Amino acid sequence: MKRTLLLLTLKGIILSLVMVFIVSCNLFGIGGGSGIKTILLNRDIDQDGDNDVVSIFHNIAGGNNWEYGISIYVDSNGKVYVTGYSSNGSNEDMYVIKINSDGSLDNLFGANGKVVLNNIAGGNGGDYGNSLYVDRSGKIYVTGSSSNGRDYDMYVIRINSDGSVDNTFGTNGKVVFNSIAEGNYLDFGKS
Fold first, then answer.
1. What angle do CA 55, 56, 60 make, to 5 degrees?
2. 72 φ/ψ angles, rounded to the nearest 5 degrees
3. 3-state secondary structure of 110
4. Pick from 5, 89, 159, 175: CA 20 to 30 A from residue 48's CA?
5. Residue 6's pLDDT is what?
């Protein structure tokens, strides 16, 4: 069973962010490859005079298995940012996607609208995006947790408005915290 990220947008405003369990993504014409499917609904849910849009995202990190959207942010221009984690085939990678108000990926951001990061704390295990914020200059701050090989560390990463990691922040664009409460086990960043 594949899990696919579904975003329902109403003129660029997110109505809901839910996980959908789809037996086959072929139901939506996505298949096994990386995909986005934007469907124009034949109804006006928000009653603003136009039909609304559903966007379905699949295979963000290339593992063809699952996507989880954890945090969402809508900027003043109606651009939508989502962070979470996606299967890469062997574990999970943190991602940020940037979506236009029509539900399509913003291809000027990252690699075709998405930034996928792994090995944040150096452990080559799971990397999870839990929360994000976009400041006035368009810089994106993501916090979450990442495997260091033994346990999980909390991190903060700063991403530029074009989707590149801001290497002027912390060490190579990230700050990693281990053993914040001196317990040396699980450190998670959320807001």
1. 125
2. -135, 145
3. coil
4. 5
5. 53
| Tokens found for residue 90 | 């062997």
Alpha-carbon distance of 171 to 117, in angstroms, equals 15
Q: Please tell me the number of Cα atoms within 13 Å of 74 on its side-chain side.
A: 14
CB 141 within 8 Å of CB 132: yes
- Written as one letter, the residue type at 87 is S
**Residue 57 to residue 48: CA distance in whole angstroms:** 25
Q: Can you list the residues of the chain whose pLDDT is less than 50?
A: 1-4, 8-34
Instruction: Judge whether 7 and 99 are in contact, CB under 8 Å.
Output: yes
CB 124 within 8 Å of CB 92? no
Which residue's entry shows tokens 């651009």? 79
Structure tokens at 18: 């839910």
Return d(Cα 77, Cα 180) in angstroms, integer: 37
The token duo for 93 is: 């990678």
Between CA 107 and CA 120 the distance in angstroms is 24
Instruction: Give the total residue count for the chain.
Output: 191
CA distance 139 to 135: 6
State which H helix or E strand residue 132 sits in: strand 127-134
- Rounded Cα gap, residues 159 and 163, in angstroms: 6
pLDDT of the residue at 74: 86
Q: What is the pLDDT of residue 24?
A: 33
